[in-house]
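Putative small membrane protein: structure tokens wanted.
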Amino acid sequence: MSKQIRHGFFIVCNIQLESSHNPVNSLKPMPVMSSQRTQLFALGLLGTAVALGAFGAHIIKDLVTPERIDTWHTAARYQFWHGLALLILAEHQIRAPKTMALKTCARLFLAGTLVFSLSLYALCLTDISTLGAITPVGGVLMLSGWLYWFMTVLKQTKYDNR
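Answer:
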């Protein structure tokens, strides 16, 4: 493997080479900019929520039942609101970049939103009703994110009031 390809592999894998003499013994993690990553995911969710909401309102409204359109809009709404929550979390991560709790909240929101909304979009497009059984898993993940964020703020408030 050439030196250039090997170096690119380590960058993609979030690993930085300290020296080129012995790359295996000199691996160290690169700094992760989690607030920027959270912002990117948030903006991705927000943009696609708007696009998918418009898609549901203008393109598939005549192709599916009114109940499925309502389901589609529910998916887009939850995706949008949790995209906003991720954007707020990203701002908090800038202020407290070492806080693992905020990263955990962001992961729960992202995973929950993807499972919840994607299962509902797929349900609407395919009319496979068993996909609706997956949706509550996403809902639980999203609720877990809110609960975890609440507990984090509560714990910090107690710590600050000492």
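The radius of gyration is 20 Å. Residues 1-20, 29-33 have pLDDT under 50 and may be disordered.

Cheers.
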